[in-house]
């Protein structure tokens, strides 16, 4: 069975994606900082497997801790390897969010540590397993290249991966004709935010961390052409993270995290090329950004 490692999987988008993968027969390594909610999630995930109980290793801890990261990767190895790494765990840097004039610097350091440094450190440790994954190439048997769910779409997902998507930036001018990157190993899914690209008041610290994650992901995609690297803006969601960020906002009308999962699965099912995507809160919704 394929193996996924998902951080921040006790609730929200991480838990919803883990449930979808378990339902497809994936084995999982999941983490969260709180042991109780994580074990509760793991029990339900074990019962979601196709035909037999999914193997789920739940390791509570902080992704900012090097020993915890090493244990996560080791657990994936014991399950047989690693085919998908999902960097979903995140912190805001201030709760509730504040303007940059009041942004606590220790909070900004924490946001950078969890949203940027920890994902890279986990990727570095997981690369040997991801490079030898054969899960995504198995799609070649059923989906010939160019005939996946992204080909021929008006949103441009059928085209070659552009390693410099923001061509209006003078530094990247003329570089958008990069050849397509054909991954032969596993996949990395980094959960980003529209705050990485849009200047929303009070979202400056968190947005800066996610913008750094985006750039880091883009460079990784160029340096590791054998992998697929996706950095995805999941859009507005009704999560505890959002409630902590803007506690006075009425989030009852925002979509639940599960509505984003079909868009993420489309990336996996279509073996989508590396790039930045936006997962719309509608079944199957996904578009390149």
TrEMBL record:
This protein's UniProt keywords: Oxidoreductase
Gene Ontology terms, MF aspect: oxidoreductase activity
Superkingdom of the source species: Bacteria
GO CC annotation, single: membrane
UniProt keyword rRNA-binding present: no
UniProt-annotated stretches for the region Disordered: 147-175
TM region positions: none
Family, similarity comment: Belongs to the short-chain dehydrogenases/reductases (SDR) family.
The protein's name in its UniProt record: Oxidoreductase
Native source species: Streptomyces tubercidicus
């Amino acid at each position: 069975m394929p193996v996924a490692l998902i951080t921040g999987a006790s609730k929200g988008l991480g838990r919803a994606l883990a449930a979808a993968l378990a339902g497809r027969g994936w084995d999982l390594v999941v983490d969260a900082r709180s042991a109780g909610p994580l074990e509760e999630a793991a029990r339900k995930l074990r019962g979601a497997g196709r035909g037999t109980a999914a193997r789920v290793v739940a390791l509570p801890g902080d992704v900012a801790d090097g020993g915890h990261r090493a244990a996560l990767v080791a657990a994936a190895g014991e399950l047989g390897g690693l085919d998908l790494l999902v960097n979903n765990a995140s912190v805001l840097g201030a709760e509730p969010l504040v303007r940059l004039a009041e942004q606590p610097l220790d909070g900004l350091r924490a946001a950078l540590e969890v949203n940027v440094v920890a994902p890279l450190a986990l990727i570095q440790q997981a690369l040997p397993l991801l490079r030898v994954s054969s899960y995504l190439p198995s799609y070649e048997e059923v989906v010939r290249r160019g005939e996946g769910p992204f080909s021929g779409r008006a949103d441009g997902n059928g085209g070659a991966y552009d390693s410099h998507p923001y061509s209006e930036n003078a530094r990247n001018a003329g570089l958008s004709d990069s050849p397509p990157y054909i991954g032969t190993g596993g996949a990395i899914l980094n959960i980003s935010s529209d705050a990485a690209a849009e200047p929303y008041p009070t979202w400056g610290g968190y947005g800066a961390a996610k913008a750094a994650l985006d750039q880091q992901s883009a460079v990784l995609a160029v340096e590791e052409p054998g992998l697929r690297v996706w950095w995805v803006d999941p859009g507005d969601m009704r999560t505890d993270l959002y409630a902590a960020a803007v506690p006075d906002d009425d989030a009852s009308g925002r979509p639940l995290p599960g509505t984003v999962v079909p868009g993420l699965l489309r990336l996996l099912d279509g073996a989508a090329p590396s790039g930045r995507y936006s997962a719309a809160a509608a079944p199957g919704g996904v578009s390149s950004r």
